[in-house]
Design a protein that fits this description.
193 residues; mainly alpha; Butyryl-CoA Dehydrogenase, subunit A, domain 3; 8 helices
């Protein structure tokens, strides 16, 4: 007898919500809101813009109630929505020329340092990482955020970004890492001759 594969907790909550259980969406919202905000902050580089984007993304999840199909893990589906929304937001901001390269450290965790010089260096590194991340093309930025910060597998990255294969996701991430290394070269340890 065929058994359906187990579904993830968020998928289960979404299916309950789809079936009419309003409390399931409240539970789902509590589970995913922080993750959606962090993803948006890393993609947009601005905590205020991330807050607005996260609300828009969560509203899209709410509105997808009738059309949601559990063909992939819920988080993969969610990150596809979030990626598309954040890319669109960055393009709109660029067209309006209201937002330049973000200087904030949106969502980057910095180590605690007692030494002010070390704290200053860590802050400078965090700003450089955010600038380098913001300078990446949108799909490369999304691949880095999904793989590095959200812990997605290459299969999930490929699916969330609607790439044709895992190999395409790996290539995209490889190119992003090379671009980041180039941007962050001044902060990398110098190799001995």
């Amino acid at each position: 007898m065929y058994e359906a594969p187990p579904i993830d907790p968020e998928q289960h909550l979404m299916l309950r919500f789809q079936a009419g259980d309003e409390a399931a969406f409240a539970q789902l919202y509590q589970r995913i809101r922080g993750m959606v905000w962090r993803f948006s902050a890393r993609m947009l580089g601005d905590p205020e813009a991330a807050e607005e984007a996260a609300q828009d993304i969560l509203l899209r999840v709410f509105r997808a109630r009738g059309s949601y199909q559990p063909t992939a893990r819920f988080r993969t589906w969610l990150f596809r929505i979030a990626t598309n929304h954040c890319i669109n937001e960055r393009q709109r901001a660029w067209r309006r020329r209201e937002v330049g390269t973000p200087e904030g450290t949106a969502g980057l965790a910095l180590p605690d340092h007692q030494d002010p010089a070390s704290a200053s260096e860590a802050a400078a590194l965090a700003r450089a990482i955010q600038r380098a991340l913001a300078a990446l093309p949108p799909q490369q930025r999304a691949a880095v955020v999904l793989a590095r910060y959200e812990g997605c597998s290459m299969e999930q990255v490929a699916e969330a970004l609607d790439l044709p294969s895992v190999g395409a996701a790996k290539l995209l991430l490889h190119r992003a890492r090379r671009a980041l290394e180039e941007q962050l070269r001044p902060f990398l340890p110098q190799e001995a001759p």
